[in-house]
């Protein structure tokens, strides 16, 4: 767990992070979203001490990061930035191994870990490992950046606009990869983005930051259903709130007993996807299956519409 206590950073007498207190639960992804200059990057960098706080502190699993030696901090916290910050004269494999090398791991262990990470990120070690950054596509370079951050098996991963430079299709794929890897590894992630859609898609919790403070901090559903201030409402968007809410909830939450015709929908799919399928195929109920294709019941259009109506009108 990451605990932030009255965390403050002042530049030239002006607070850019202003007394923020919050807890990010272990194994969750917290998305910090807000406009440019609101203090997101500064807050993130105080977690790994790239920026020293002017006041307040950060605890990771109860330990004050100000007292954690730099080597342990590097091992315990991965960091991914927009543009990936790969060393241009090093191969992808050597870039991935940089922290283990600093930590003095034996060569054979670094090589094995590099291969494992390349496989996990669906890159061929023989093909991609020896390439230099300029020989990689944007999506590949982004994955190498993530592999490098994960190399020393950190408990915490900090990501600053990690998908900012990717085109929309690759970006969605990278977001899916992150969700998959996170489930696999149980890493606690804090991700900075200016894109509310990305925050809603990825976050277990969302912190909306403005002028150095958290204007609202809570689960995505609360942010969409009950924006605390006009600023949050503005970020969420005036229109389409019901559909956003449906995009956050899986089909499994509205499961009923019964029979339905036609192609089934996965219980993990979103209610908005199920509704789209109903509209497209002209059905008012769909069979629901689990990840292995076992029938679980049905989901009905009326139930989905009722769930969407829980969003207050914009
Ligand atoms: N080293 C520094 N010295 C002086 N001012 C700084 C420094 N670093 C950041 N700032 C200022 O602090 C404010 C917050 O910056 P920060 O980078 O944390 O915002 P951000 O929300 O991440 O913005 P963006 O989305 O544009 O990256 C800005 O006004 C910025 O100019």
How many distinct helices?
14
Sheet of most strands = 6 strands, mixed
In whole angstroms, the N-to-C terminal distance is: 35 Å
Radius of gyration: 21 Å
**Unreliable parts:** none
Instruction: Give the CATH class of the largest domain.
Output: Alpha Beta
CATH-level-2 architecture of the largest domain? 3-Layer(aba) Sandwich
The tally of beta strands, per DSSP, is 13
Strand content: 15-25%
Structurally, how many domains make up the residues? 2
* Structural class determined from secondary elements: alpha/beta
General form: globular
CATH superfamily caption of the largest domain? P-loop containing nucleotide triphosphate hydrolases
**Cofactors and ligands present?**
adenosine-5'-triphosphate
- What level of helicity do the residues show? 25-40%
Question: How are the strands of the largest sheet arranged?
Answer: 6-7-8-3-9-10
